[in-house]
Amino acid sequence: MSGFAGFRVLVPGLLALLLTGCHPFSDARPMMTEYVERLARVLELEPTLSPIATAEPMPRRRDRVLALPDLDMGMLDFLSLYGCELQYVVGKKNSVMGRVMQPLNRLRYELRFIQSARKCLPEVEDEKLAKALETAITSKIGSLPIAVWNATWGTAEIEQLFTLSKGEYPVSTEGNPVADLAREVTNLNTAVSAVLEGDLTVSLAFAGAVQQRWQAEHRAGQLLNSALVLAARLQDATSLLRMRIQSRPLCLNGKPNQQSDIVQGLFFSVYIDKVQPYMSDVQRARTALIKPFETLAAMQRATMPEAFLPWYRRYLSSDADASVWRQLDAAMIQHTKAWQALLEQCGLRPGA
What are the residue ranges spanned by the domains of the chain? Predict the structure, then answer.
C-alpha cells in the first residue's frame, strides 16, 4: 500500500476522533467526563475519574426458565381422544410444534387447557376420568405462576431489551423513545396481574407483538448503562466540589469575583444546559420503563428463581441497598447539595 493510499485509509478514522473530541456532549460518557474535567479546571483542582462499574447481563436463560410440571402423557393421549374441546387443545399440544412451544405460547396453552377442561368436566360421565380431570385442572392452576414467569422473564426476547451492548441511553433525544415500550409493558402487567389473581379469560393476543418489539429495542439496557455512568461521574464531580468547599473559599466575604463568575458560567453552560437535561431524560425514561418492569418482577416474587434475585435487586429495584437507581438518586442529591454549598460562598446559591 502506498503512503498516500494508507493516508486515505486513516483519514476517516482520524476525522471520527476529531469530531468526537469537538462534540463531547453528543454521548453520555464523553459528556460526563468533559463535565468533570472542566469542573476541575475552573476549581483549580486535578480531576480524578473513578472506574465506572460494568452492568451485569441478565442471568442466562437456563437459570431463568423454571421447569413446568406436565401431565402424564398417557392421560394427555386419552384426553385428546375424549371428544370435547379439550380434545383439540391437547391434540395441538401433542403435535410436533406443540412439543417445542415458546414460553408465551405455552402460557396460552395452559390457560386454554384449564378453560377447556372446566367446560368438559360436566360432560364426563366416567367417575374415574372425572376425578383425573379435576386433578389435572388443579395441577394446571397450581403451576400457572411458573408458566407466567417463563412467558415474561424466561423469554429470549427480554434479553434483547436489556442487552448491555448498545451503549448508553442517547443524549438529546426527540420525543419519548420509550413511550411505546412503556405503554406495552404496563398493559402486560395488567394482564399478568389478572391471570395471577385467577382471571383466566384475559387475552394475551397483544403479547406477541410486545415481545417482538423487545427484540428490536435496547432502551432498558441503555438506561442501566447510563445510570452507572451518571452515578460514577456525579460522584467524581461532587468530590471536586467538596474539596474546594473544604479548602480555600471560592469567594472572600461572600463577594463574587472573577473566578466565581467562571465557575457560575460553567454551572449554567454545562451542568444546567447539558448534564441536568440528560439526567432528567434518564430519570423520566426510568420511571416510564424500568419501574413497570420492576412491577412485573415484583408481582412474581414468589415464583422468581433465586438466581434472578440479585439481578432484580441491583437493576430493577428502586430501594434495595444495591440498587443502581438508589445509588443514582443519592449521587444526584449529593451533587446538587455540593453545588449549592459552593455557590453559597459567593451569595450565588441557586434559588436563593
Answer: 26-64+152-352, 69-142
